[in-house]
Amino acid sequence: MQFIDLKAQYARIESEVRARIDAVLSHGQYIMGPEVGELEERLATFVGVRHCVGLSSGTDALLAAMMALEIGRGDEVITTPFTFIATGEMIALLGARPVFVDIDPVTYNLDPSKLEAAITGRTRAIMPVSLYGQCADMDAINAVADAHRIAVIEDAAQSFGASDRGRRSCSLSKIGCTSFFPAKPLGAYGDAGACFTDDDDLAKALREIRNHGQDRRYHHPRLGLNGRLDTMQAAVLLAKLDIFPAEVEARARLGARYTELLNARGAVSTDIGGAAVLTPFVPADSVSVYAQYTLQVRDREGVAQKLHELGVPTAIHYPIPLNDQPVFHVGFPSTGTPVSADIATRVLSLPMHPYLTEEVQLQVVDAVATATGLASAG
Ligand SMILES: *Cc1c(COP(=O)(O)O)cnc(C)c1O
């Protein structure tokens, strides 16, 4: 059993991927070839925004977004500690200070009710993460940000394809940033990412930033990066985009099925309380792409070991909140984030990808029941 099965997907799209890659090999425009613009147009339409700017990774997308907003030394950016390192890392890399605000215990996303208290005269942006593939509460976050005239950047690295009340992730704030790392919901065959915005000026800035701050050949009005989306990766993504809507549907269906099966055996979805297993909670008007299908369990090490013995691979997203990472110990004091600290001790992710069969899912659920003491049959 695989945690993420990329080969099942490849078997389905092999001829399209090969044809797209062959086209690149034939025209030879490896940097900013025609596939990049074609992909950007299709992605912008898919998300429902005016502009998509391809970047070399999700990390560079976050960096470029903050550079476009001219965030730098002395500024503060509010974010969640319960995320992958890149989110806080890029803030600090620009010389700004990541201010970690705690998460909602049910959705694991930034808790909007805690934002107001963290805003200072130096706050330039709020950067929520749509963790595990479920949109953060962007309306509530935008409302706080608007009142203070600060920008919101959605770190949508895990939520590409997700939606909230019919609006797609990456269209829910000033700038949306995503990643096409192979294991993400829409994955390339290498590193890639993108920024999305409705703002023409920001889009222009992002296009310059990804190409060394260049506005025309060898003319550089600003600092930038070597942050372009690779043509080969754009070609791969174009082939994958054709089946992506079906994959988004499959992910949502499989995630809901995991929850149904586990809850039928005694797991619960809103508060672990006395239960052995907490399953994800997704509001009725929200579509998660389940970049991760993540449980909370007690005695995580024991459960993971038992699952390993039963042939079920697991992963921990994430074991250490960012404000407890050694790199942030000095110089980035944070206010208390007890919810993140607590939940980080219990999260455990199960195998999840759009080609998971019902049979394998049942096998996983049986193993989880055995490992955690849930009822052994539904
Ligand atoms: C994967 C990820 C990133 C970084 O994306 P890369 O393409 O790997 O650079 C940033 N933020 C979050 C929340 C992620 O999961």
How would you describe this protein?
It is built from twelve helices and 13 strands. The chain is an alpha/beta fold and 378 residues long. It has two domains: 6-241, Type I PLP-dependent aspartate aminotransferase-like (Major domain) (Aspartate Aminotransferase, domain 2), CATH 3.40.640.10; 244-372, Alpha-Beta Complex (Aspartate Aminotransferase, domain 1). The strands form three sheets. It has a seven-stranded mixed β-sheet with strand order 1-9-8-5-4-2-3, sandwiched between helices. Helix 2 (34-47) packs across helix 7 (231-241). The longest helix is centred in the first third of the chain and has 22 residues, at 6-27. It is globular. It binds pyridoxal-5'-phosphate (PLP). Pyridoxal-5'-phosphate binds next to helix 3 and helix 4.
Care to give the gist of this entry?
The protein is of the alpha/beta class.
| Overall CATH architecture of the largest domain | 3-Layer(aba) Sandwich
Number of helices: 12
Strand order of the largest sheet: 1-9-8-5-4-2-3
Q: What is the residue-averaged pLDDT?
A: 96
Order of helices and strands: HHEHEHEEHEEEEEHHHEEEHHHEH
- What is the rounded distance between the termini? 22 Å
